[in-house]
Amino acid sequence: MYGYRLFGTDGVRGIVNEWLTPENALRLGLAIGSYLSRGDRVLVGCDGRAGNTFLVNAVISGLISSGIKVFYAGLTPTPALQLYVKNQGFDAGIMVTASHNPPEYSGLKLILSDGVEAPRDVEEAVEEAYEELSFRRITWAGLDYDVKGVSDVNDFYVDAIIKHVTPEIIMRKELSVVVDGANNVGSLTTPKLLRKLGVKVFTVNCDISHIPYRNPEPTPENLGYLPMFVRYLNAHFGVAHDGDADRAIFIDRLGRVLPGDRSAIILCEYLLTKEGLNIPKKVVTAISSSTIIDEMLSKYGVELIWTKVGSINIARTMMREGSLLGFEENGGFIYGVHQYVRDGAMATALMLECIASGGLELHELYDRIPKTYVIKTKVALDPRTKDEVAETIKEKLLDMFSGDKVIDVDGIKVINPNYWFLVRPSGTEPILRIYIEARSEELANKLLNSITFLIGGVVRR
After folding, report:
1. What are the C-alpha distances in Å from 410 to residues 69, 313, 425, 447?
2. How far is 145 from 138, CA to CA, in rounded Å?
């Protein structure tokens, strides 16, 4: 594809009609269908990205050719498709989406019968079939041409979320929320969910368009006027999704955009102390999350488990460790009571219940979390030498910060009482991602200068 793995951190991604052509989508469908068993029932869904009409049809063609029974859900959020696959007895699911990537991208997520994205060994088997063109072909008489439409995926999903909160508590509070659907499939479910919970809903970017009004990734720089709208409307909070609505980034009524790990701390505290819930004292998060989590949750006796970046890693670790709470700093929150996947609408419903149940609003809950200074940046690498350069940088950082605590499950994370930073190669692009968090802006910038100077010396060699 680009000189490295077909599957990245979470699925396959590519620019539409550059790498992600109908030919390659067909090949992907054939590879996945050949990995699965003949006659397996597979549910296919998509978001509203450019190119998805022909990409979906190409993937479905490959599945049919390899002997798969195909069902089509149409436009739906990724977590809605995942829930339906798990609960309605499908053998697998395929979501055609590029999640948070820019609008020129699309891609594909492979979901297993448990509703969770396929683990790495399954991805590797699909990649092998893709590369070697080792596909199963069914004779013309044995093909199942009948693609059956499934029309209730989104309603099934909304109703399932409502079962995990107490609507009466939320309705009594008379809450108002601004929803930014990223001009994509979250617009079909989150407003409907909130209205069923008695919430007054204001919508922004909630018409579906393959040319969205904002970049699908819900970062502060991409959210435009949304914080201002939340303040102007005096809403209790705002929520912004990415393209396939598995992320939820919250904006408090003061217009502050909460980092995903901060909103996750608020949700974890609420769920860990919710009467009668008895959540296990284990929380799983990616290495890119803040060490403030440990500081905030340790008082509840929580064991914090760090994983590689990627919701697949978090979900599979949660299932193995018996945890029901997991998250990423990008706004992906996993509530295992509901399902072991990131779910933006579920996170939104839980935040509503959290605020309605207690005496504090979101901005007040956010003010209880220690304030730090955060920097996120990246450095471009030559894709031909990416892995070698990343390893050299890791060794030099280990030597430079030898007195600090180190976690190296994914790149290198250095932890000091006054700061932490993470340097890791991206799983989807030829770049090195840098995360820095410090108690002061001066210290954060000093760290950034030291790290980028070191990286520059290695890259220029």
Report:
1. 38, 11, 8, 20
2. 12
Can you tell me the distance from the alpha carbon of 198 to that of 185, in angstroms, rounded to the nearest whole number? 21
- Name residue 231's amino acid: R
Hunting for tokens 């013309």 — which residue is that? 140
Q: Where in the sequence of the chain do the CATH 3.30.310.50 domains occur?
A: 373-459
pLDDT digits (tens, 9 = 90+) for 201-252: 999 999 999 999 999 999 999 999 999 999 999 999 999 999 999 999 999 9
Closest CA to 207 of 223, 193, 188, 194: 188
pLDDT higher at 273 or 8: 273
Q: Structure tokens of 398? A: 């280990």
- In the chain, the percentage of residues whose pLDDT exceeds 90 is 88
Is 426 one of the catalytic residues?
A: no
Name the residue type at position 188. L
How many helices and strands in the chain, by DSSP H and E? 15, 19
pLDDT at 428: 67
Which residues on neighbouring strands pair with residue 74, listed in sequence order?
A: 45
Give CA separation, 20 vs 261, 311, 387, in Å: 32, 23, 24
Instruction: Report d(CA 44, CA 53) in Å as an integer.
Output: 12
Q: Which of 99, 106, 176, 426 is catalytic?
A: 99
pLDDT, tens only, 383-437: 888 889 999 999 999 999 988 999 988 899 999 999 999 999 887 678 899 999 9
Whether 351 and 267 have beta carbons less than 8 Å apart is answered as: yes
Residues facing residue 143 across a β-bridge = none
Alpha-carbon span 251 to 269, nearest angstrom:
18
Tell me how crowded residue 169 is: count the other CB atoms within 10 A of its CB. Answer: 14
In the block, tokens 């709208």 appear at 229
| The token pair that represents 280 in the structure block | 């296990």
Closest CA to 237 of 195, 206, 200: 200
Compute the distance between CA of residue 349 and CA of residue 192 in angstroms, rounded to an integer: 12
Distance CA(16)–CA(50), nearest Å, equals: 7
Strand partners of residue 42: 70, 92
CATH topology of domain 156-367: Alpha-D-Glucose-1,6-Bisphosphate; Chain A, domain 3 (3.40.120)
Q: Pinpoint the residues of the chain covered by CATH 3.40.120.10.
A: 12-151, 156-367
Q: 373-459: what CATH class?
A: alpha beta
Q: What is the pLDDT of residue 4?
A: 46
Q: CA nearest 241: which of 255, 254, 225, 260?
A: 260
Beta carbons within 10 angstroms of residue 411's beta carbon: 23
Nearest C-alpha neighbor of 245 from the set 161, 170, 366, 362: 161
Length of the chain: 461
